Each structure stands twice: as C-alpha cells, then as structure tokens.
Amino acid sequence: MQKGIFKLGVFAVLVSAAIAYQAVGAGAPAARTAAAGGTEWSFDASYIEACSCHLFCPCYFNPMPEHPYCEFNMAVVVNDGKVGDVSLKGVRYWLAGDLGDNFGDGKTPWLVITFDPKTTKPQRDALVKVLGKIYPVQWDKVSFDESEFTWEITDKEARAKLGNGKGEMILEQWSGNDGGKSVLHNVRYFGADRNDGFVMYKSKVHRWDGFGKKFDYSGRNAFTIRLKSGGTFEAATD
C-alpha cells in the first residue's frame, strides 16, 4: 500500500475496540478547533506484507492497482512506540483488506484489524489512532478480530500465519544483482514519515478467508519493511 500520491490530510479515527470505528475525512467542514497541547505519539514497526499486484506493486506510484483491486495482508510487530502514556512496544496486529480499483479519492472498500489477544483496550484504542495517521484513507467497512499469529523473517523467507486460520503469508526473497537482498529506497510508505526501504519478496502463499472476504495468490508482490513515524494528536474542542 502507498501511497504517497494522496494529497489528503490525515483522517481522525474514532475508536472503541469493541465496536466499529469510523474514519473522518480531513476535507470535511471544520467543526472543531484544536485546543492547546495535544497527545504526542511515536511509532516504530516491522512489517511482513503482501498484495494481489505483481512485483512491484504499482499502487506506490499510481492511484490505482494493477487489477480491479489490491487485496493485502500485513503482519506487524511494533518495535517501539506510544500514544501519550500508553506504550505500544511489543504490540502485534494483522491487517487484511482491499484498496479497491481507484483510491485516488482516499476511499477504500474494507479492512479487518486483528489484534493479538494480549493487547489491552488502551493499546487497541491507541493503535487505531496511529493507524489513522499511517493510512490516511476512509474505509467503507472496518471489522475487528482477535488472534495470535506467528511472525518470522529468516535468511531467504518471511512467514506469518494467523492462529485462527484466516490469513497466511509465505514469502520468498527476491535476489538482487549481487545475490543478496533487493531493496527499494526513497519511496514513501503511505502516511509514515520514513522507512528503511522495501525489501523485495514474491509470495508463495498469500491468502485470506474471513468476514465474507476470500482471496488466494502466489507469485505476486510482497516485501518486508521497517517504518517510523510520530507527531501530536491535537486536542479538540467544540
């Protein structure tokens, strides 16, 4: 998912871990003004990610995918981070969804957020706020789930699998000219401030089956990446 092409402001995400969350477009009429202060946040996370496009996903350079959709899985481990006094260090989550056939207007079809069971409610609420900054789009439907998952990057493979069986990725590293890693640098990852480069892979297994959505791919785009971001959530008053 990119997608530096968006000229949109960040969407605020109103959260409760037990109910649906709704992203609010930055282009909506301003009904609130920022109060003094705000909540500082930081985010440092490592991703295993795959999608339905061929290598390398054109969504990072264009407002539309290679196919009529861009169906993805992301298995994420937070290396460090916080929202206010809520620590996100060690939090794990899985994202599955679809960017749709044209996300240039910032609207996208669906997203499922799967939390690791150890994640507390304050951490879940904080994490969804951060996701609203990293992915500044408006999802038509957001669903929530809970499951443990495995996550592993070895010399030539990356693997992740949900314990509930709904999602799985097995990725084979794409060899560079010298036989080592092939890494794409200086390309923006969605709304994140910075990243250490897209390490290229191709999917051997990339599947999802849950919440009425199902896909299964192999030989398609995949990568691992570490990204960092941060800022301040502005306090708002009526």
How much is the radius of gyration in Å?
17 Å
The total count of strands amounts to: 18
Which H/E pattern describes the elements? Answer: EEEEEEEEHEEEEEEEEEE
Low-confidence spans: 1-35
Largest sheet geometry: 14 strands, mixed
Q: Helix- and strand-based class? A: mainly beta
Helix coverage percent: under 10%
Distance between the termini: 34 Å
Number of helices: 1
- The whole-number mean of residue pLDDT values reads 84
Number of domains: 1
Query: What shape does the CA trace take?
Result: globular
Structural commentary:
By secondary structure, the protein is mainly β. The chain has one domain. 6% of the residues lie in helices and 49% in strands. The chain has 1 helix and 18 strands. Strands 4, 5, 6, 7, 8, 9, 10, 11, 12, 13, 14, 15, 16 and 17 form a 14-stranded mixed β-sheet that branches. Strand 1 (12-14) and strand 2 (22-24) form a beta hairpin. The radius of gyration is 17 Å and the shape is globular.
Break the fold down into its secondary structure elements and pairings.
Elements: E1 12-14, E2 22-24, E3 33-34, E4 39-51, E5 71-83, E6 86-87, E7 92-98, E8 107-115, H1 121-134, E9 138-146, E10 149-153, E11 157-162, E12 167-173, E13 183-184, E14 194-195, E15 198-210, E16 213-217, E17 221-233, E18 236-237
Parallel strand pairs: 8-9
Antiparallel strand pairs: 1-2, 3-18, 4-5, 4-17, 5-6, 5-7, 7-8, 10-11, 11-12, 12-15, 13-15, 14-17, 15-16, 15-17
